[in-house]
Amino acid sequence: MVSSSEFSLIGRRGFLRAAALAAATPILTEAHLAHAADKAAIPSGMAQHGQGREVPPPDAVLINANENPLGPSPAACEAIAKITPTGGRYDRMGETAMLAKTFAQQSGLKESHVAVYAGSSDPLHFSVLAFTSPKRSFVTADPSYEAGMRAAETAGAKVVKVPLTANYAHDVKAMVTADPQAGVIYICNPNNPTGTLTSKADIKWALANKPKGSILLVDEAYIHLSEGEDVLDLVAADQDLIVLRTFSKIYGMAGLRCGFAAGRPDLLASLKPFGQNAMAITGSAAARASLLDPDLVPVRKKIIGDTRRETLSWLKANGYKVIGDPQTNCFMIDTGRDGRGVIAALKAKNIYIGRTWPIWPNAVRVSVGTVEEMARFRVAFREVMDMPHQAMLESGEPLNLASLNFPHLS
Predict the structure, then answer these.
(1) Which is it for strands 114-117 and 53-54: parallel, antiparallel or unpaired?
(2) Within-domain flag for 85
(3) Which of 181, 194, 373, 385 pairs with 16 at a CA distance of 20 to 30 A?
(4) pLDDT per residue as tens digits for the range 229-274
(5) Distances from the Cα of 398 to the Cαs of 280, 333, 348, 392, in angstroms?
(6) What is the domain range of residue 104?
(7) Do 277 and 338 belong together in one domain?
(8) What phi, psi does 321 have (nearest 5°)?
């Protein structure tokens, strides 16, 4: 066990350094990454707003940002409508505190082990800034969700990428030995972009064998969509980890913004210097209503799971290569050709899919949409893949993500 003093930022590094780091780069979300990919190839005549951000046509199939097309539950919408008239006041009824209490009770945690944020992107960013530095690295799987790497670069930390295993799980043994000076070992489980699982046994092994002074940052954004085991019991046991949760996925609240960081109180305290803005009462109320709906998770897990399985079965039956055994609301296809060209060609057909990752330039990520949206995807994908490679490239402008520098966010 690492002592609380080893993780204390407030006295050691100070609020000034924390403020400087927090202001040095925007907090990236899945939406930013999706918009950056879309902006890189905006066909002539496409409507734009802001700093060149694309406005997709009303009939576009948007399966590019791992959103939930089901949206907020009826209970969440009712909670928003009910609380909105009180929006002229701050959180006078303690809605955010009630949300934290509800989550803690359902998860077997003390309330002191739960912090509420506007999504999980903030605590992901803050955790990396708090526990990495020019002397403490950020270790991540490759491919995996990129936002933590951006935060590590802001902190001046070395980014260590470790390829996934042959089964597309996190290679925890390689990750914990990748750098003896690691500050954060990031495990996205299920993984974004592959949708694949890493076992709880492997995560526990990583926790037991990680470098001294490091933490595990376990991102469980997609855990409810899978058969994977969560690790909140390790938080309850006061281990050296922070677990991230969001309402953007199964709960369908990506635009409403709500999430949690769960960890020991001293670990959560280290995040506070980087940002402590209050939650919107609408997001808090909707999130609490969602937690209290006993049918939401199992019903949506089945709907999204059935649609995913139907799509994957079609892909495999038609000879397309699905990577691994995806368990969530996204999957990757090895197209056998330039993935950015496939993305652009599909976009020309009004089908927006996700991005590529440098380690797998031929693989594209696809989010799970509605049954109707996935049917349209299948038709368009077959048409694109039936094109000769050069014809495909000419059908749409290939993406150039320019290393994802996100100039429009500055």
Answers:
(1) unpaired
(2) yes
(3) 181
(4) 999 999 999 999 999 999 999 999 999 999 999 999 999 999 999 9
(5) 39, 17, 11, 9
(6) 72-291
(7) no
(8) -95, 110
